[in-house]
Amino acid sequence: MSRKFKKHIALIPAFNEERNIEEVILHMRKHPHIDVIVIDDGSTDTTPEIVKRMGVILVRHEVNKGKGEALNTAFRYILKNHRRAKYVVLIDADLQYHPNDAWKLLEPLENGEADFVMGYRNFKRMPFRHVLGNFVWRTFFNTMFGTDFPDTNCGYMAMTTDAIKKIGRVHGGYIIENSMLAQSVRKHLRVKHVGVKVSYKHISEVPRGIRVVAGVLIYIFTEGFKYRLGIK
Known about the structure:
Elements: E1 8-14, H1 21-28, E2 34-41, H2 47-54, E3 57-61, H3 67-81, E4 87-90, H4 102-110, E5 116-120, H5 128-145, E6 157-160, H6 161-167, H7 176-186, E7 191-195, H8 206-229
Parallel strand pairs: 1-2, 1-4, 2-3, 5-7
Antiparallel strand pairs: 4-6, 5-6
Helix pairs in contact: 5-8, 7-8
């Protein structure tokens, strides 16, 4: 007998997260109206075994393909197999974002106030390097797309399944959040931001940080110019 799915789904992409995945799932289970799906991106540790033991749905890549492809696989799975689902919240498995904030992102969707919701972080509580990089990205994104978003790079997001269809394919790498947000603007989706807690366990090294900032900026400029010129 097929499982009757709920309207709300917590989607957790994971890669070698045996230290954190159980805690994330336990937190999400506190929300009785949310079902949990873990997309395991080719983990070589015990992450998939933990997920199976906890009895939540596991969708798995045999090899690591990156978070973007993990999301594409998960979105296809949801749209094909669980058509009753209407709202999806996306949270990382590393406990950088607090699972208890999930309903804060889902609520504007449930209330019909938005199609796509992105968290925004308290930048006063973030490492300076991350603050600087996010300031640059946010400023250029808002300039190019004519928006006034308080955060354009938060990985804690929620969206309707209709929005997932309109956003289409998710780009990988460090542009995931910007690509989804840019597509939301292009498709005239109603975008809302809500405050979320964030805890940084790792601070990017300067050379890596510079590469990441530059790569995301190139994407923002390229897509921003296309948007301004009306190029799809």
